[in-house]
Amino acid sequence: MTAKERVRTAITHRQPDRTALDFSARGEVIEKLRQRLGLSGHASVEDRLGMDLRGVGPDFARPCESLAYADPTLAIVNGDVHCDIWGVGFRPNQTSCGFYMDLALNPLQKAETVADIERHSWPSPDWWDYSHIEETAKAHADYWILGHSRGIFEISWFLRGFGEFLSDLACEPARAEAVMDHVQAYLMERARRVLEAANGHMDMMEYNDDVGGQDGLLMAPDMWRRFLKPRMAAFIAMCKTHGVKVKYHSCGSVRAIIPDLIDIGVDVLNPIQARAAGMDAEELKREFGAHLTFNGGIDTQDLLPFAPVKTVREATRRLIDIVGKDGGLILAPSHVFQDDVPLENIIAVYETALGAPLM
Fold first, then answer.
1. β-strands 53-55, 98-105: how paired?
2. 68, 81 contact by CB (below 8 A)
3. Per-residue pLDDT tens for 166-213?
4. What is the CATH number of the domain that holds 337?
5. What is the pTM of this model?
6. 172 belongs to a structural domain
């Protein structure tokens, strides 16, 4: 099978020739893998590990800084706070486990009225160049082509502050909805332009929005259903008019809303944070496997950083045999590979899935 055929087969709940594979890692981990695998020139870690998906998206068309969190950085304030297109600020932080951008500034934290929110400087989808998307997608025609969008909840609370935004949802919903509606309008229009520019050559759109913690949702499920579900449903419905599948990413425990995700058309759930409450991949397969494909599932909290290679191979094999039975699995870690994971354990995951040595 080609990579595209393999992923399509898995998502339609049929058995592919081998497990469909995904891969995501911190930049420093990718560089170490390149060295360990002896890659040079244009050879990529993704190709060597058998990754079946390729991401395609627009280029930012305005001047921006090199360091960023998720959206481009437009300005640096107070010496080291990198403000993105939303005005949200992040501070660089080099840790023992890698380099990160930590949230440092919530520009709407002191907003008191809807008018204050309306006066904020909101980004525009016009700031992106979509012209090369179709060409890039065609160049990777044998792969499963994935577009990406951030989600409404994370951006909204980044803008407002976590406590302030949750308080707004409970006590001042008009203020919360004013923020969410601006974010939603931008995300919907940017995604629509990406899909139109792909001209039928995109296979899936990812909606990335963390709403789960280790023990459950970050809000009551009914609050999620009232404020986030209908907005997410509108986004998914727009994507489906372009004939693509929809992948939803949320770290943490989202067990309480999985039936709702199925109800609004989510096809693929990522990353299946194995140690979070209710997120055991085997249990999810039994209960929801007829409706969802699971993307992830290899534990990055305990297994990958600390287990010996033999245990990693056994856990990977078990996930493939049980969760991947009759399709429905795109194997990947339950978060990006970070610098606390031994390279031997990363290699063990993909050697097990490919059934062949990588070195």
1. unpaired
2. no
3. 999 999 999 999 999 999 999 999 999 999 999 999 999 999 999 999
4. 3.20.20.210
5. 0.97
6. yes
